[in-house]
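Q: what sequence does this backbone want?
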C-alpha cells in the first residue's frame, strides 16, 4: 500500500516510479484541476518496486514452501538484501516482491511538482522513521524547507529515474 499525504483518497492513481519528470506531459494540461476525476501523482519515497513473482523469495530462502512459510518475512521488515559481487547493495527481496535496495527519495523535487500542478504524492510505508518522513514531505508540500535525513535509508537514497537517468543515480540527494 502507499500513503498519500495530500488526501487519503484511494480513488487516486499512482504513476510509475521509472517515468521521468515531464514524460507524461504537463500535469496541468491533462484536464482542468477542478474537472479531474482522479488525482494523479508519483510515488516519491520508498523502495522501488521492480518485479513480482509467483514464488515467495523469503520462504525459499528458509527452505520452506510458499504455503507453509510461517510468515518468515515478518522477521525481515526491510526485506532480504542482495549485494552485487562487489558488495554494493543491489536488490531487496520481500515475499514475492523484488525491490531496489536503495530508497527512492524525491523530497528535493516536491516544490517543482507542486508548481507543475501535481496534487498528490505517494509515500511507501517504512518500518522506521515514518513520522519524520511524513513531516518532511508535508513541510515541502506546503512550501516550507525540509531536509533529508540519511538515517531514513540503510542503503542510500536514489532519484535517477525522476531525472531521466539510471534509477540508481543520486545526484540531488544530499
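A:
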Amino acid at each position: 500500500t502507499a500513503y498519500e499525504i495530500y488526501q487519503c483518497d484511494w480513488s487516486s492513481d499512482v504513476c510509475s516510479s521509472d517515468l521521468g519528470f515531464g514524460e507524461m506531459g504537463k500535469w496541468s494540461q491533462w484536464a482542468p484541476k477542478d474537472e479531474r476525476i482522479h488525482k494523479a501523482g508519483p510515488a516519491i519515497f520508498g523502495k522501488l518496486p521492480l518485479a513480482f513473482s509467483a514464488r515467495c523469495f523469503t520462504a525459499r530462502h528458509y527452505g520452506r514452501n510458499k504455503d507453509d512459510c510461517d510468515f518468515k518475512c515478518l522477521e525481515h521488515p526491510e526485506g532480504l538484501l542482495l549485494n552485487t559481487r562487489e558488495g554494493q547493495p543491489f536488490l531487496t527481496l520481500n515475499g514475492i516482491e523484488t525491490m531496489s535496495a536503495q530508497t527512492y527519495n524525491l523530497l528535493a523535487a516536491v516544490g517543482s511538482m507542486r508548481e507543475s500542478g501535481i496534487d498528490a504524492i505517494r509515500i511507501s510505508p517504512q518500518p522506521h522513521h515514518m513520522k519524520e518522513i511524513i513531516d518532511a514531505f508535508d513541510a515541502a508540500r506546503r512550501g516550507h524547507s525540509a531536509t533529508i535525513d540519511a538515517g531514513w535509508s540503510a542503503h542510500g537514497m536514489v532519484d535517477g529515474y525522476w531525472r531521466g537517468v539510471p534509477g540508481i543515480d543520486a545526484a540531488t540527494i544530499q
